[in-house]
Amino acid sequence: MTPLEPPAPCFATDVITFYHPAFWGLDSADALRDWARDHPRPFWERVMEALAKAGVTGLELTFAPGDIDSALRAFGSAASFRRELAARGLSVVSAFVAGSDAPDWRQGGNLPAIVADAERRAAFLAEAGAGLLVAGLPMRTTFGTRPPFFVDAAYMTRMADIAHMVGEAVSRHGVKLAFHTESNSTLWYERDIDLFMALTDPRYVWLCPDSCHIALGGGDPVAVARRHSQRIALAHWKDAVKPIDIELTIDETVFAQQQPYMTELGTGIVDWRAWADAMSRTSGADIVLVELDEAADPVAALRAGRAIAETARARSAVGDHAARVERPGQA
């Protein structure tokens, strides 16, 4: 290894990468969910096999079929799941809490259920050898909805209060709580992120910026990463075609509506060298999570995404070294 090369990170991906029905020889997402529900162990064994082939060793769990409950049905316990992964050189790095799969943060009476749900996930993660629970804030409402819903200081203060309770609860399991910047959520625009970060305690609340989703909101993911570098525990490396230029209907179809604006790493508008440089200065620098929603050929897509990330990190390191060499001679 030369002095210019950054330490090799753990390359990871979200299990959603493997949700394309074609990868399983099936014709629909519903068919995949049904098959994986009935065959949890074959589902996970094929995911593990694909990860190993792609040279990606870390995994983020998410909603079904690649969720915590599925892993428990397949292997019986978090410890057993961990051993199965380790036998293939793999590990869990994080778990994502999907809004549809957890108690609603907008309902005032849900706090005990919210905390209990997070503690259950954190206990699994701790036993599985992972230390990050990734959550999101609730979605916005469709623009023009009456009565209007405002993402204001009062709303963010309520979200911060809940985040503190959850963050403290999971910290007792040795797990960090990090928030994902989901498109059309209440943690999407740069202003949302800055406000939420300002209202939350850095000991208990961390950030998981998603380069694609921030860009889809018209923001600068690199600027966000630099501003909040001390709070970033993990990041999702994902590319965007362009900012979302219409008002989407925010309902159960919103994720499908966003999909055409997303693309594989290196084919969109994210400045990967600058992003890699910003990431190298964060607490999450040792994990590069390449996110690819529902890749028909996940092994090829992950290999390509990893190559883009590796090139960006190498170029960032060279540029940083050059800048340090030039500084002593400056007037």
Structural summary, described in words:
The chain is 44% helix and 11% strand. It has 331 residues and is α/β, with parallel strands linked by helices. Strand 4, helix 6 and strand 5 (176-180) form a beta-alpha-beta unit.
Distinctive features:
331 residues; alpha/beta; 8-stranded parallel β-sheet; two-stranded antiparallel ribbon; globular; disordered C terminus
Quickly describe the structure.
It contains twelve helices and ten strands.
Cα radius of gyration in angstroms: 20 Å
Secondary structural class: alpha/beta
Mean of the pLDDT scores?
93
Q: Could you estimate the helical fraction of the residues in percent? A: 40-55%
Uncertain stretches of 5 or more adjacent residues? 321-325, 327-331
Terminal Cα separation, in Å? 33 Å
- Envelope shape: globular
Major β-sheet strand ordering: 6-5-4-3-2-1-10-7
Strand content: 5-15%
- Number of helical segments? 12
The number of distinct β-strands equals 10
Q: Helix and strand string, N-terminal first?
A: EHHEHHEHEHEHEHHEEHEHEH
What does the largest sheet look like? 8 strands, parallel
